[in-house]
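Notes, p. 3: input format for complexes.
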Amino acid sequence: EKGTYAHYMLKETDEQPFVIRNIIKEYQDENNNLKLDAAIREAMKKADRIYIIAAGTSYHAGLVGKELLEKLANIPVEVHVASEFSYNMPLLSEKPLFIFLSQSGETADSRAVLVKIKEMGHPALTITNVPGSTLSREADYTLHLYAGPEIAVASTKAYTAQIAVLAILAVDTAKEKGIELSFDLIQELAIVANAMEVLTDQKETMEELARDYLATARNAFFIGRSADYNVCVEGALKLKEVSYIQAEGFAGGELKHGTIALIEEGTPIIALATQENVNYAIRSNVQEVVSRGANAMVISMKGLEQDTDAFVLPHVHEVLTPLVSVVPLQLLAYYAALQLDRDVDKPRNLAKSVTVE
Ligand code: F6R
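Output follows (357 residues plus fructose -6-phosphate):
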């Protein structure tokens, strides 16, 4: 039920802090240790490489998951768009583990890959919001997202839930492998949930920013480096799906290798700046586009902000920034769509789960 909300997309965006708290509860034992099936731990330890298979927003969550698994658990990870993988399979490692990321658990492109790799005898773990879904039933193992039903076609809370569960999987695997980590994930996720709540309380600001930067735009570019780049591709997808404004996410350094030709007077550029090691670099990319007339909105993280930034995110642990930086991008997409009078919960040409290849 959407209750007092005008749209499910807004309700589901608002639910994200509660989803994160729910995930903390479900993946924690009575001694506040991470809790995962022994069989999943074993499969993670055995794998020499992980292949994440997904589509759309789930693919974007997979890009974040790759960084978490590689940086924290020291396992090589490849992320693949399901529809490409099934017709153009890369060389596989000796002991691959496949992770299927899917909110619905019904995406036909992902299922086609699952069928193929099962025939080849490889193990599969599905991470899904729908227990009992096809991808869950047909995989060897399942991790649940505990996000509650997601009704809006544009995915919001499933994205953040997928990242949180992948963070748990990464930290748990690190612990099992004896890798020392310098932070407590449960504590950091609790900080993330609070930060998300601060953000979902700032809807008026996001509504104004959408009006100032996007409502009359034909196109928009999202730029970021490193972890921010992964969120930029998701921010762009959200915006195009619900507002129909043509939008793309770019690595900060890549825009000048061609796409900068599209920048005109007033073209909106949304830049994320949450990573210390690339803060200087992304800011010089912002300068490059501003000097060509772009209308730049910088969204930075507390501690890295500058006076001219449009919006400052509460501080969270650096590896978890995608969980908070995506929230304003979801809200910007939502308000831009409203201002353009779009059918927010049911964008044209889209279906909630794509069950044809
Ligand atoms: C975007 C969106 C789609 C889905 C994609 C995969 O907002 O909803 O891009 O993310 O169709 O769906 P699942 O995760 O159900 O496999």
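The chain is about 45% helix and 15% strand.
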